[in-house]
Each structure stands twice: as structure tokens, then as C-alpha cells.
Amino acid sequence: MLTFQELVSITKGEALQYKQSLPIVQLLTDSRKLSQPGSTLFFAIKGRWNDGHTYLKQLFKQGVRQFVVESLTEAEAQQLYPEANIIWVPNSMEALQAAAAWHRAQFQIPVVAITGSNGKTIVKEWLSQVLSSEEQVVKSPRSYNSQVGVPLSVWQLEANHTFAVFEAGISLPGEMEKLQRIIQPTIGIFTNIGTAHDGGFTSQEQKVEEKLKLFQEVELLIYSSDYTLLHEAVQQKNISSLTWSKKQEADVKITDITAAGHKSIVVYTYQGQKQRLSIPFTDEASIENALHCLSMLLYRNLPLHEIQNRLDKLHPVAMRLEMKEAINGCYLIDDTYNNDLAGLKIALDLLASQPKQRKHTLILSDLLESGLQQEKLYTHVAELVTARGVERLIGIGPTIQAHAAKFSGETAFYSSTTDFLQQFQLSSFRNEVILVKGARVFEFEKIVQAFQQKVHGTVLEVNLDALVHNLNFYRSKLTPDTRLMVMVKAFAYGSGSFEVANLLQFHRVDYLAVAYADEGVQLREHGITLPIMVMNPSPDSFAKLKQNNLEPEIYSLEQLQQLVFSLTEGESINIHLKLDTGMHRLGFTAEDFTELFALLRQHPQAKVVSAFSHLAGADEALHNDFSRMQIDTFRTLVAAVEEALGYKVTKHILNSAGIVRFPEHHLDMARLGIGIYGVEATGSEQESLRPVSMLKTTVSQVKSIKAGETVGYSRKGFAEHDKIIATIAIGYADGYDRRFSNGVGEVIIKGKRAPIIGNVCMDMCMVDVTGIEVKAGDEVIVFGPQLTLVELAARIGTIPYELLTNVSTRVKRVFYAE
Ligand SMILES: *Cc1c(COP(=O)(O)O)cnc(C)c1O
Description:
The protein is of the alpha/beta class. It folds into five domains: about 5-95, 3-Layer(aba) Sandwich (Udp-n-acetylmuramoylalanyl-d-glutamate--2,6- Diaminopimelate Ligase, Chain: A, domain 1); about 110-310, 3-Layer(aba) Sandwich (UDP-N-acetylmuramoyl-L-alanine:D-glutamate ligase); about 325-455, Mur ligase, C-terminal domain (Protein-Tyrosine Phosphatase, Chain A, Alpha-Beta Complex), CATH 3.90.190; about 465-690, Alanine racemase (TIM Barrel, Alpha-Beta Barrel); about 695-815, Beta Barrel (Lyase, Ornithine Decarboxylase, Chain A, domain 1). The protein contains 27 helices and 38 strands. The chain has a nine-stranded mixed beta sheet. Strands 28-27-26-25-24-23-22-29 form an eight-stranded parallel beta sheet. The radius of gyration is 29 Å and the shape is globular. It starts with a helix and ends with a strand. It binds pyridoxal-5'-phosphate. Pyridoxal-5'-phosphate binds near residues 487, 535 and 681.
């Protein structure tokens, strides 16, 4: 085990303070993921928008006694953290990586590193599936493949492991060498090279070159030589390899792949022998992933029948952790595909990040963790469950039941899923967040079904990782001192206000804004504690504002008078002054200033925390001069406000488009709206954002109609020849605009576009699916990455904002993380 003294020398740091001998078991970089303080070593990393040093005091209070820091003096250490062991290093991130590299070097087992554009996580999961019968496999949790994720993955290595699989992902040159030093792989897999635009690299060649640095010392690299660029680079570097190819000579030469039902029959030649195998998938991506696994099994010299055995067991990997509304005001986190310790930790972190307004419940199956002794495993699980604040535990399976005594608090145990479903009263679950975490064999999807609210065919899927990606994109654009307010008005642009707000709170944005007091109250009821600005507070909502610590936008003298009148003796309130600089919607102009300032001086209990204005044309370059004029006017007006008040206020004027267009005017804060939801309003940086929401529905019925017949109301849909049409379960009451009628709109079914035929009805519409193989129940994409909001909005002469916010609340929202 790593000791403090070793750590000092490994990290090339200095011991600021050494007080007691403590075990270093957990490495921590995110203060919110603390579970066992007594054996935790915290690395205070300075990130782009967060500084780990901010959390030292809090962690010390929670019992952490071992720290790696970059900025702290000996005197501060002594005064603030009297009993702690503290190492000073020039760079905490590098210290974390050095500690992980040291740990890795203690093990002499095969270590596989996987990189590539797609499929890393699936190949990792599958390798562990096909090797688990003879190896004790340790693997990266989910997609822990970054500069921080890789060290934490490698740190999991323990003496009982006999085989390791880690994934590595990079976004910038220079990063892979670091990951190579941490993983020290003995075998490599390069899954593929995508053509996707990759911000950090100048060319595909540079990207391949950089990624190959992971494999500079491997004894074997597995890849497909059909990726020419990759193949040439590997040959040039003389890396010993095992290649497979569908096109040319290779170690594994694939001569035929034929689909047969749900399987694909693969014919290949390896070491001069022609063989046939079946793979339980038919889509191209899965076949590619499976061929990498096949190559690994061939390399390990397994007999053919054994290889077939293992491939038969491959099953799809659920890449997402879904969150959805459930019965009785409950909320469900659905993670029913695997249940190992690392996965459990991640899912518990997500549970712990949910507001405490709802009770936190865990339904957990036996863990299928290879190697660890059961006694030790369940003791650890019990500690973890307590540390993560789980208030109610339901254990399902003979093993967890046998260890029931280790768990404290409100618990119940069942020997099987069927037992649970038969005995348990679902009505005893009320206002809880329930994490459902089980290994596949336990078929926990049955529990999810029992809890889930009836979904009518239409759902809006919201990708929380994409939201965070977009948030970080705008943060990277912002001048470092500029704070960020995120607009969650109108149900977070249709995406689900509380869920989005909770994520934003977790990612530490500075402010939220809503349109009406009720929206703010709802966020408070769901445990949102961030400051919230309310843009359109009516006088009858002032009491609510005060009770819920919401901050009104004030745009008129009359409104300000009513507000101060409503304040009782000793009461005060934070307000935001709206200045009209040319939008001519709401706000004060210079003409109001004499009276405004007099009122504010008279009533200092209305404290102006910010002053702001809104640009009328930030999204269009055409209006740049006007926007600059607005910004100038704002600067002048706000200077007068500050002078009159005698104190500084937070100044903000830019929306999403403004952040991109006017980097020189970020001021104290910016107000991010549509951009975080995936639409870049200026159009120039759309590529850097990820689409956040996907609206999906299903086919209700398919029918054939004859030439000359008509479809739908007013007989507007006319079949000029025989057609196959599908009725789909979405209409204008769901927010599917009636202007999409008669071919203006299209949807995607089976990857193909199908135009709307006839008028859009209230709850349904019909699409022309002639030439597409469609049956009732098939999935229909109304908008998403392949059919963008920008395109659809243009078709009906509106803007993406309207399409997003129109998605009716009766459409169920499903949130997921990758
Ligand atoms: C909605 C809104 C924003 C955000 O605008 P986007 O174009 O969505 O970025 C900013 N400020 C105010 C006052 C708003 O009403």
C-alpha cells in the first residue's frame, strides 16, 4: 500500500505537514464523492472552472486527513488543518497521475488499453464478459477514460485481479502520453477512427498519431487494417499487431458476413484455417466490436467451440443510466444491466446528487463481483450505502440476503425478484428517488416496469451529458471572471425544469432565471438552493418571492413601489434592475432615473444586486452595430445606476448568441439560454454543441391506401398513387405544429425520412412510409440529431426556441446519462 513518504517522493512534492500514519485507500478528486474519509487522499486540482482547494475546509470537517495541494502555506496548514497530512506539489493533477502510475507498476498482469472514436466502452464491457470465466477482470467504471478518470480506474487494481481492461479517451494533443504512463498497457485495441470533426486536432493524421502513443510499448495491438490511415501509421511505427480485415490480407481475414435472423455468420481465415462462427448481432457497429473480441480470443488460443460459447453470451450493453418519473411522486434511476462495485459507486453518486426532498432508496441485487471475498465485499457495500446517504435499502438475491445483518437503517430483503414483486406493496413507495441497480440475471427491468408510470407513446429524451458538454462549451468561451446565469424559464426550454436545474446546481453555475414566481417556487420545492431571478413577478406573487428567497427583476417604477410597499419592518429583498437599451420590451430608460434613484435611496431594503439589459438581435450579424450600440448604452446607464446607489452591482447583457459574438463584452455575468439546450443561435459554432433532446413517438397502425383516396381531416392528404401510410402517436396537442401538415414536415422511421401526409390532427398524424418496412410499434423520431430543430424550425418559418418550448407537458421526459 502506498505510504505518505512514498507519495512525497513519487509526486516530487514536499511534505508540508505529517501528523499520523493513515492508510491511503480511496483517491478523491470530487469532494461530493467522499465515502470513507478516514482512508481517503484528496487531490485539490485546479480545473478550468473549479478549484479543488475551495473544498479543503469542508472535507477536513468531514474527517478527511490526507491532502495533496498546490496552493497552501505551512502556516495555513498548521492553523486550518492541524491533524492532517499534507503534501505540496507543483501540480495536483500530475501528482494524481503519478500515484496511479506507481500503483499500476506494482502489478504484473496483462493490461489491455482501448482507444478509438467509438465502441471503447462496449469493447471493454464485452472483453470482460468473454474473459470472466477464467480471469478476475478489473475494468474502468462506465466511461472513466479522461485525465482524471484513467488514474481513478487504474487505482482499482488489487492483488486478486488477473486481467485489466481500461479505456482511454483524449481531446487534445499531448494527453495520450500521460495516459500511457498511467495504464502501461501490455495489449492494445484501437477500435476505429471516426470522421467526426475533432476540435482539438489539426487533422486525422495528427489524431491517429497521438492516439497511437498509447500503444508505444505494447506486445500486441489489435485493430482493423481496413482503416487505412491507422494501418499505415501502425506499420510505420513497427508495432507488433494482430489485424483483421474484410478487404485485404490480414491475420484474421474475414471472407464473408451474412445475417441470419438475429445473428451474423462470420467466415474467416486464421493461421491458414478457414472457420465459421456466429455473432449474436446484425448491426455493423456491434459486428466490428465483436470482431475485436474475437481477435483477442484467437490470440489467447482458445479452441473454436469455446470461442463460440463465449461469443454467444455477448449481450447489449446499456450505455445509459436513465432517470424517469414513477408512481406516487417517485423518481426512478434505472440501472439494470450490470452490478459490479465500480458501477454501483457511480450510480450511488448520481443518487446522492439528487435533492434530499425525496427519500433516497436503493433496490440492489447480489453483486456479481469476481474475486473479492463475499464477507469483505458486502461489508464494503454496506459502508458505501451508508456513506452515500441511502435511507431505505431493498436487497434482492440469496447472497445479499445472507449478509442482511451488515446493513443498518430501514431495510428489507428478498431472495428473488419474483418474491419482491409478489410480496411488496408498491403503494408503500411515496416521494422517493429509487435507484434500481441489478445484475442482468435478476431481470430488474420487471421492477422498473412495475414502478414506471404508464407512458403514452411519445417521450422527450434529454441527454444530461450533452447538457453538461454544452455548459462547458460556453464556460470555455467565457472570460474567466464572468459568472454564469442559466435560463430555466418555460420548463427549461421544454427540457424539464427541476431535473435540469438540479444538474446545473451540481455543476455549480452561479444563478438561475425563470419567468414566473411559480416556476421558482417549484424549483425551491425540489431542493434547488441556487439564487434564482424571476423575470416577470406580478405584485400578487411578492409574498411567495420572499418566502422562497426568489429575486425579482424590477422593470418599472410602479412595480418597485408595490414591492417596497409589501416589505414589512426589517424585511429586505435582492432585486435585479432591467434597463431598456433598445429591445423596447421591459425596463427602465434614462428618463426614469431621477425617480428610480430617489425611490431606491429611500428604500435601501430593496438591494440592487444586479442591473441588466437584453440584446434584440445578437443572433444575427446584420444587427451587430445595433447590438454594440445597446452594449454602449448599457454601460453608460449602469454607471449612472452605480453612482446613484454608491455601490457596485453585477452587470450583464449577453444571451447565448451574445457570448459567442461579443467576447469583449462579457461583463460580470452572462445569461445562457438556448445554447445549453443544444442550439447555437449565431450558427457559427453549432458543431461544438451536442444535441440535447430527442422527441420520439411510435407507429400506431400501418395501412395501404389506393391511388385517388384521401387521408385525414378535410381530405387534404391525396394519394396520387398507391401508398403505405403509418399513423403515428403525436399531434398538435403534443406540440407537433400543425404547420407541418401536408409534406412540410418529416419524421424518421427506420433511419429513413417519411413526410407527413394530410393535416396534423390533435393527437396523431399520418406519414407516408411507402418503401420503408414499417410495423405498428416501431419507433419514430420527430426531432433529434438526424433531424435537427434548426432544420424543422426553418421549414415552418419559426425558430428552434418555439419548437422546443411547445413540446407539451403531457409528453413524458426521460433523462439519461451515458
Ligand atoms: C430568455 C432570455 C435569455 C436567454 O436567451 P437565449 O437566446 O436563449 O440565450 C437571456 N436574457 C433574457 C432576459 C431572456 O429573457
